[in-house]
Specification:
Blueprint: H1 16-26, H2 31-41, H3 45-57, H4 60-66, H5 71-76, H6 80-90, E1 94-98, H7 104-116, E2 120-125, H8 134-137, E3 153-157, H9 161-168, E4 174-179, H10 185-198, E5 199-208, H11 215-222, E6 229-231, E7 237-241
Parallel strand pairs: 1-2, 1-4, 2-3, 4-5
Antiparallel strand pairs: 5-7, 6-7
């Protein structure tokens, strides 16, 4: 399995009080977003509540902070805990994410796969740095992914449309796809269409920063639905399931 580069993680230098505040922010979940997740995955409320408890009791947030996930990461992606719940609830076997760089979203997903005891994640990267905060730009590729979580992970280098086509058609259909490849509208349109065509019958399509371009709004319109949000952010995250009950 290819492992990420990036060298030794740069620890976030924060006070104990700041560490506690960041940890709480990382684990924050909006009730409305959890309800949308319940409809999207079909998981009962009791199950999602159990996953929330296990996440609060885990060391994942602390580990991410130790590896350098400071305030910039929490601002740019406040839905890490929601990603964890989504993967725990859906129990996907094959997942693909694009635009990976330090691996913040990757770590949340891989932690959920480890808890599930099943599933493989392919991450296409490195993603673009345009518009990213300095703290995110300076992190190494894969820096935030703990070594203990890498056994279910393949980092695919070469962030191009042909490379993504190879990944999407490599084997069986995918169960979960996360678009996180920046605001380029042409690339976003391509990835959303290609991923949707590659999803399994229980597949879920997620998209980060859906306010950055018209691509998500256009895509949802083609499916006959208004723009679908899993979490309003900021920045907002979109979500659409293949099954009619998930819309």
């Amino acid at each position: 399995m290819p492992v990420a580069s990036g060298g030794t993680p740069r620890p976030a230098i924060v006070s104990p009080a700041a560490h506690k505040a960041l940890r709480q922010r990382m684990l924050f979940l909006r009730s409305a977003s959890v309800e949308r997740l319940r409809r999207l995955t079909g998981a009962p409320v009791s199950e999602l509540q159990r996953y929330r408890r296990e996440l609060r009791e885990s060391e994942l947030a602390d580990d991410l902070l130790r590896r350098g996930a400071g305030p910039a990461f929490v601002r740019e992606l406040p839905q890490g805990a929601l990603l964890y719940l989504a993967v725990r609830a859906q129990r996907p076997d094959r997942l693909v994410e694009t635009g990976v760089r330090p691996g913040y979203t990757t770590a949340w997903i891989l932690a959920a796969l480890a808890a599930n005891g099943r599933g493989e994640l392919v991450s296409l990267g490195p993603g673009p740095t345009v518009g990213r905060s300095a703290g995110v730009q300076q992190a190494g590729v894969g820096q935030l992914v703990p070594p203990a979580l890498r056994s279910r992970w393949t980092l695919a280098l070469g962030n191009t449309e042909p490379r993504l086509r190879e990944i999407l058609t490599a084997s069986s259909r995918i169960d979960l796809f996360l678009y996180d490849n920046g605001p380029d509208v042409t690339r976003a349109r391509f990835e959303l269409r290609a991923a949707w065509d590659a999803l399994s019958a229980r597949g879920i399509l997620l998209a980060h920063r859906v306010d950055a371009s018209p691509a998500w709004r256009e895509f949802c319109s083609r499916q006959g639905v208004p723009p679908q949000l899993l979490d309003p952010g900021p920045p907002p995250m979109g979500a659409l399931g293949v099954g009619p009950s998930a819309r």
